[in-house]
Every structure is written in structure tokens, then in C-alpha cells.
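Record 1 of the preview.
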Amino acid sequence: MRTLAALLCAVLTAGVALADPPAPGSPLATRLRPYKGWIEGQWIPCKNPPSNTCWCCSIADGRPVEAVQQRDGHWRAHVTPENWPGQPDMWIDVPPQIEVQHSPLMFEGFLWRSPITGQNFCFAPPGGGV
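->
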């Protein structure tokens, strides 16, 4: 059963790092460089005994997003084809379980999303979270 859970976590996070990282020297790469270690060290809750966590974020899959906090405290993020080519321009509801707290990313919201499946891995709210 543990092997099955680990396999499931691997499958669910298989889209991580399938995107191209920001081009070296690009404004996004420059902005993210100081946070690379933090970004790639994030884990989210999942059914992966014994730790019940899965690795979530790659410097390659994260992109800045416009984000709005709803009255009930949940977040919505704006996914655009400019950041994820081939995916439609849309607002998505951010599941609370992928929200990263205490983010050092103090600029706009940041979403880690599979460029292939559209699965959302992690979300850092604007202003660093709570």
C-alpha cells in the first residue's frame, strides 16, 4: 500500500518540471533567482506515508499570476496562455491544500501548474501568505 501511495504521489506530481524554466537573464529568472532554494524545497500534504507530503514546486513550472482573495478567504488565480501556452485564459479556484504559507515571494501571486495536464501543484498568495 505504501508503494501504491508513493506511486500515486509521483504520478500526481509528474508534471512538475515539465515546463521550460524562465530563460536565463530574463526578468522572471532574475526575479526568481534569490528564491530558487525556497521554491524547490516546498512540500504539500498528500497521501504519501509515512510523511504524508509530496514535493510540489520547480522553478520551471511557477509563474506569477494575478490573484484575488474571496470573501470566504479562498483564492482565485488568473491562468493565461502567456504563462501556460496552449491553456485557455481563465480564472481558477485555488484549492486550500496547495496554498503555501509564509512565502518569501512578496510580489504578485505565484502558481505552479503543469503545462501539460493543467494540474495545480502549489500557490503562493500575493504578499507572502499568512
